[in-house]
Amino acid sequence: MSVALTVDPSRERPHGRLFWALADSGNVTRRYLTHFLRQPVTIAWQLGFPIISVLLYGFVFGEAMKVPGGGDDGDYKQFLMPGMFVMTMAFGFMNTAMAVVTDASKGVIDRFRSMPMAPSAVASGRGVADLVVACAELTILAATALAIGWRSSGGLLDTALAFALLLLLRFSLIWVGVYLGLVVPTPEAAGGLYAVAFPLTMISSVFVAPSLMPDWLAPVAAWNPVSSTGTAARELFGNPGAGGGTWVEQHAVLMAVVWPLAISLVFLPLAVRRFKALSR
Amino acid sequence: MNGDGFAVRAEGLRKRYGDKDALDGFDLRVEQGTVHGLLGPNGAGKTTAVRILSTLVRLDSGHAEVAGADVVREPALVRARIGLTGQYAAVDEILTGRQNLEMFGRLFHLGARRAALRARELLEQFHLEDAAEKGAGQYSGGMRRRLDLAASMILAPGVLFLDEPTTGLDPRSRLEVWDTVRDLVARGTTVLLTTQYLEEADRLASRVTVIDRGRAIADDTPDGLKNTVGGSHLDVVVRETADLPAAVRAVRRVCAGEPLVVDVERRVQAAVTDRVRALTDMARTLQDEGVAVEDIGLRRPSLDDVFLRLTGQTSGTAAAPGTTAVPDEKEVAA
Ligand SMILES: Nc1ncnc2c1ncn2[C@@H]1O[C@H](COP(=O)(O)OP(=O)(O)O)[C@@H](O)[C@H]1O
Ligand SMILES: [Mg+2]
């Protein structure tokens, strides 16, 4: 009853390398998405965190926070929601890094590398899974935001563009996550990355407009890639607090494209090099 | 595959990490259809050798062919013909046993249907049917190892690499894994198995290469190896240090091998051929001499014994303290 098992090279030939790279990538994606089916709690956690953040920051800080140019209460909520969207995207690199370092330390990446599959699928499969999860996160976040009174006054196209820019940021951070996942020695050590992730998202326009920060901090926050995507989203959603005097803030939509491309251009080759270095 | 009947042929493998040679001119030949043991202490270079042969790590120099393909020039071909079970069970702990095997099967390009069929077959072959729908994270060490082995066997590879497959397993799981390996070889797979235990190599392998500091220092059958160390050891511990010389004299009379004395433990040991006779003779002789014996017994040779004989040093894994060879009886008495 045994299945024919020897790899038949002629079976591989009709499909080119690209076919197998895509097929392998799809199977790796499927693996990660199956994780969510196996552990629905993880889904609840991953999606629950941003929802709780939205409610927490929206209601707890809502009254206390100022928005430049704003006055009515409720403005901070309108200001904050795009910030929460960006923050969720930004923190996503931790999930990527954690998945990669777990696989690396358990020998799963070595097993993949010892198999006749496309090596690129290890990262691309994870990347696609990350984007699927990001879409789900944004959907749920937006629904929650709508439920507590957030609105996009931008057109349909602008609104869609804002979400596309959010996903673009997440896309660029896949490579940061893969790179860090291959650099960090253990999953435990990867937890320490939060120490980096927190300031990176806090020193940005996520919670407070840079114009309200001390002079020395404001430019750092304004030039933070997270801020560019956040400001661009606010602008496209027509939410308050988008503007700011500086050049980066004036060109937020442009920078929300430039930053992710720059990050990808740096970290994709770094991740590939690190992956290849596994065989050194 | 290879016309000459070798599933693995490695010559002069070198691999340097920083200023340390993990492999320093390592040679290995593994005959088709056999279990070959690669025996050595921690840090000897076993894992490095396996990683080079399974294309995970590039060699600095040397030449290696696995299942008829060159590991440097034809890595894809090698990967299609080998299975690898690394030092840690490399399975997805969140997926079920079945999901693991199906995923790996699809990544081996079997296609969804054949991957599912193959998963079912392997779950049965590795006695994991009952746990098939459980998350691999809930498996016992032995079950996880078997799932890991099953994943390596998806393509029924010609050559299977097992890197310390029983390290960290309880005795029962170890027996299970040994049974599995025997079963695989009966089905025609060639296995290269690394281990720190002479007993494991003895139980499974038909030939053993001993590796030390990146070099092969012996290549023999398990029996041949045991003969170099003298098979089993008779081990006597006397109650009084003053009785040691008398014990050494008795050991000389009864045993074939040169006695070894561990002064601090008041221990004398020597290789024996006829195990039971040596034990009874020894007990009688010691009694006749009036030596008070604290303990007497037979011990199977260990990796340490092999190393002691081959290199003049213990392997460092479980070195007995204060071990000295006995050149002359008088020195012990002195
Ligand atoms: N990636 C690495 N980087 C640095 N040193 C290494 C690396 N891999 C192995 N070594 C060194 O090479 C030697 C052989 O290691 P290894 O092949 O793992 O031995 P074994 O598997 O027999 O315990 C050891 O001294 C180890 O420290
Ligand atoms: Mg090892």
Automatic annotation (TrEMBL), chain A:
Residues 41-278 form the ABC transmembrane type-2 domain. It holds the Pfam family ABC2_membrane. The keyword Transmembrane applies. It is a multi-pass membrane protein. The chain crosses the membrane at residues 40-59, 79-102, 123-148, 160-184, 191-213, 252-272. Keywords: Antibiotic resistance, Cell membrane, Membrane, Transmembrane, Transmembrane helix, Transport. It is found in: Cell membrane; Membrane. InterPro entries: ABC2_TM, ABC2_TM_bact-type, ABC_2_transport, Nod_factor_ABC_transporter. Belongs to the ABC-2 integral membrane protein family. This is Transport permease protein. It comes from Streptomyces alfalfae.
TrEMBL record, chain B:
It is found in: Cell membrane. Residues 8-238 form the ABC transporter domain. It is a peripheral membrane protein. Transmembrane segments: none annotated. Keywords: Antibiotic resistance, ATP-binding, Cell membrane, Membrane, Nucleotide-binding, Translocase, Transport. SUPFAM superfamilies: P-loop containing nucleoside triphosphate hydrolases. SMART domains: AAA. Belongs to the ABC transporter superfamily. Drug exporter-1 (DrugE1) (TC 3.A.1.105) family. PANTHER family: ABC TRANSPORTER ATP-BINDING PROTEIN, DOXORUBICIN RESISTANCE ATP-BINDING PROTEIN DRRA. This is ABC transporter. It comes from Streptomyces alfalfae. The lineage of its organism: Bacteria, Bacillati, Actinomycetota, Actinomycetes, Kitasatosporales.
